[in-house]
C-alpha cells in the first residue's frame, strides 16, 4: 500500500498501527495523521530506534 492510500485510510489503520507499535498513544496517532515521516519520528522517539531501523519497520508494515 502506498502512503497516499495509508493517509486516506488512516482512521481505519490506526488500530493496526496501535497493535504493531503499542507504545504510541492516541494523541501520537492523531498527530501522525497518516504521514510517514511523522510515524517514523514517533517510533524513534518512543522506542529509541535509529532512523533507518524505524524506516525499515514502517516500510515492512505498510507493504503487508
From TrEMBL:
SUPFAM superfamilies tied to this protein: Hypothetical protein YjbJ
CsbD-like domain segment(s): 4-56
Pfam family, one: CsbD
Protein family (similarity comment): Belongs to the UPF0337 (CsbD) family.
This protein's name: Uncharacterized conserved protein YjbJ, UPF0337 family
Organism phylogeny: Bacteria, Pseudomonadati, Pseudomonadota, Alphaproteobacteria, Rhodobacterales
Domain of life: Bacteria
